[in-house]
Amino acid sequence: MSDILSNLPYARFLGLTSVIDGDRLIVTMPFDGKLIGDPILPALHGGSTAALLEFAAIAEIARVHPGARLPRPINVSIAYLRSGKPLEVRASARIVKAGRRVAHVHAMAWQAEPDQPIATLTAHFLMDHDAA
Predict the structure, then answer these.
(1) Secondary structure letter of residue 131 according to DSSP
(2) What is the domain class of 3-126 according to CATH?
């Protein structure tokens, strides 16, 4: 797990791990029964999926801009595209544009196939490059 994720209690609670695959960071959330939001379907809780996406975006900013303080969300928009099955979920993010203070990030979560996302994130994060 990236250092930034291991320092975040909710990321540890979700069991998030990360690996670098080529030039991108992939964050994985293993399935756990505590993540079920709708036991009838069953389907993953949208909040855990949203948290995975936000943590993937934060980890990507931290990877690309090492040494900066933890990025803080300014605004976050999640699009739920299909129900998350009771399976492992992966997410990756890309920085669309990063200025001195703000980064615009897109992230995507998927289960079986990366070209079939279950949810996407579009967000702006406040960055502090002056922090040690």
Answers:
(1) -
(2) alpha beta
Domain boundaries, the chain: 3-126
The whole-angstrom separation of Cα 88 and Cα 16 is: 10
Using an 8 Å Cβ cutoff, are 86 and 44 in contact? Answer: yes
Q: Is 16 helix (H, G, I), strand (E, B) or coil?
A: coil
Q: Which stretch of DSSP H or E encloses residue 122?
A: strand 117-126
CA distance linking residue 121 with residue 127, whole number of Å? 18
pLDDT given for residue 13 in this prediction:
95
Q: Which amino acid is at 127?
A: M
pLDDT, one tens digit per residue, over 53-66 is 999 999 999 999 88
Q: Which amino acid makes up residue 94? A: R
Q: Are 1 and 18 in contact (CB under 8 A)?
A: yes
Which pTM was predicted? 0.93
